[in-house]
Design a protein that fits this description.
Elements (H helix, E strand, L loop, with lengths): L30 E3 L4 E3 L1 E3 L2 E8 L21 E3 L37 E6 L8 E7 L17 H7 L2 E5 L4 H5 L3 H4 L9 H16 L5 E11 L1 H9 L11 E5 L7 E2 H15 L17 H8 L8 E2 L22 E6 L4 H4 L8 H16 L8 H11 L5 H26 L6 E6 L16 H4 L7 H4 L3 H24 L19 E5 L4 E4 L3 H8 L9
Parallel strand pairs: 2-5, 7-8, 7-9, 9-10, 10-13, 11-12, 13-14, 14-15
Antiparallel strand pairs: 1-2, 3-4, 4-6, 6-8, 15-16
């Protein structure tokens, strides 16, 4: 699949001119002038599209160091196709078609020359000052990319006349190998250069988005999973202050960052794996010439690559002991799906029913989220959940508990710590829409197709029948419109949704997105209270 694949609902055919729904024409040629030079894109379904605009220099030249602004060029740079993805920690296996629930595939090769943005807009240089939706992809801090039809911004632009920007940036060891305590001043930023890439991309937006018809003073940063965690981290970074004005985190929290002591020991393990000495700072110079693939292979010894609390770029934990003061006035929305861990946790009970499933349940819970249970034993958790939900099957009970102790717990902490200020500028949602595949879960990532209004290109997420798609698009209509309203005004309330109160204790009012969209007061409150006693611990810290 490539960007020219014609998929229902996206309409990727180029047109010469279109009188769009907002009453103005689209020029035949998509050329924009950035601070670095002119770029040429395409016109797709009445929207200007630019893929692979460089915002930073090739990071092979700045390994483990802060990114550099892209150098200028002469002439017009063609920005039509996806640029390279960042080096990926996930091992890709070609030739295996996905079975069951799955996202559309990522596109493009891997390279350290990965600092690029993609832009969708309905106007160039027209002074309309559209809200800007800046999306940060998921994949933890290990893998992932913006190069995917799922994140195509065409339908959002058609729906609400916004500018959509998606971004690629450094990941895994390339973005977060902390060498500051080993290599000194030259590597002081190394644990956070992947986040500094995002800061540089937001600076690019501030300097250039008016050329694309956007408003540099109405920038929403939003991200899913690892992208949401990166948004939370940006909220605590002085370098990012003023570069964004609303935040949405989807199934992604960053309560704590990695301490330098932990990050340094992990860096030594990676250096040992590479055969690199580190007696003096000069020993590290060999890292500048090692093959990308060798560094990537060494990075696989650790599962959790995270931002580092280095006292410089990131001087505090993102949401510990409280919500960061520098972003307290920025409206924020947080969301999770009802069954975040279903793909992993439910799979461990596959084929077991009745008493056999109940016997296996504590072991599955221990394997999936044992490190998050605190002083509780898995047996205690299963027993308490059977009291809360006496009619619930073992498979669903294990998923519910693993969600409450791991995936959802970080969101609760962040939302409660935001609410503690008394400001009514935080909103929370839960995605309850059930996929049409066996089990009928609301799994991790399910809200992406709805927020981007791209259900038509995601049959592996929402189903492939006309009935499946109609059901999904009815909800996408409300969620994508809500996203645009939030970007435009900093408040998600508006036509089409019930009144959505800000999240404040003790009510903890939460929007529930499914066929019957509604607001609930402290949903799953008994689970929340029970799981809170385990004192949530950020993975990898």
């Amino acid at each position: 699949m490539n960007r020219r694949t014609v998929l229902r609902g996206v309409g990727l055919g180029a047109v010469a001119w279109a009188a769009g729904p907002f009453g103005y024409g689209i020029e035949a040629e998509a050329v924009a002038a950035t601070r670095a030079g002119k770029v040429k894109g395409t016109v797709e379904n009445g929207v200007y599209v630019f893929r692979g605009i460089p915002y930073g220099e090739d990071t092979a030249r700045t390994r483990f160091k802060a990114p550099r602004t892209v150098a200028g060029w002469t002439g017009v740079k063609e920005c039509v196709d996806w640029a390279a993805r960042a080096p990926q920690l996930a091992v890709e296996r070609a030739g295996k078609a996905p079975v069951g629930y799955h996202l559309p595939p990522d596109i493009g090769g891997q390279s350290e020359d990965c600092l690029h943005v993609n832009v969708w807009t309905r106007g160039l240089r027209d002074g309309r000052r559209r809200p800007v939706l800046f999306y940060i992809h998921g994949g933890a801090y290990n893998s992932g990319t913006a190069n995917c039809v799922l994140y195509d911004g065409n339908r959002l632009c058609q729906r609400g006349d916004v500018v959509v920007v998606t971004v690629n940036h450094r990941l895994n060891a390339f973005g977060h190998l902390y060498l500051g305590d080993i290599g000194g001043e030259a590597y002081r930023d190394s644990g956070n250069v992947g986040i500094l890439d995002l800061v540089l991309a937001l600076q690019w937006v501030k300097a250039n988005v008016a050329e694309f018809g956007g408003d540099p003073d109405r920038v929403l940063i939003f991200g899913q999973s690892g992208g949401g965690a990166k948004c939370a981290t940006l909220m605590a970074m002085p370098a990012a202050k003023g570069l964004f004005h609303r935040v949405l985190t989807m199934s992604g929290q960053q309560v704590k960052a990695k301490p330098t002591a932990v990050a340094t020991e992990e860096a030594k393990d990676v250096l040992d794996k590479l055969g690199v000495k580190y007696r003096t700072a000069s020993d590290l110079q060999v890292l500048e010439t090692l093959p990308m693939e060798k560094i990537l292979e060494a990075a696989r010894i650790y599962q959790y690559w995270l931002p580092v609390r280095d006292g410089g770029v990131l001087g505090r934990d993102p949401f510990t002991p409280d919500a960061p003061g520098i972003s307290a006035g920025v409206p924020m929305m947080l969301g999770n799906t009802h069954d975040e861990t279903s793909i992993a946790a439910a799979g461990m009970l596959a084929g077991k029913t009745g008493e056999e499933a109940w016997v296996a349940a504590p072991g599955v819970l221990k394997e999936s989220v044992g490190q998050y249970l605190g002083a509780y034993s898995p047996e205690e958790v299963v027993r308490r959940y059977r009291e809360i939900y006496p009619e619930m099957a073992a498979e669903r009970l294990v998923v519910a508990a693993s969600v409450a102790f791991r995936a959802w717990a970080g969101q609760v902490l962040e939302a409660d710590r935001r609410a503690a200020s008394g400001r009514a500028n935080t909103w929370v949602y839960r995605m309850d829409w059930k996929d049409p595949f066996p089990g009928h879960w609301s799994p991790h990532t399910i809200d992406l197709a709805f927020m981007f209004d791209n259900c038509g290109v995601a049959p592996g997420m929402v189903g492939s029948t006309a009935e499946d798609l109609a059901r999904a698009e009815a909800l996408a209509d409300r969620m994508a419109s809500m996203l645009i309203r939030f970007a435009a005004t900093g408040d998600p309330n508006g036509a089409g949704l019930p009144r959505w109160p800000a999240y404040l204790a003790p009510a903890r009012e939460t929007m529930i997105f499914e066929e019957r969209v509604r607001v609930e007061r402290d949903p799953r409150g008994e689970e929340r209270v029970f799981a809170a006693a385990a004192q949530y611990r950020q993975p990898g810290t």
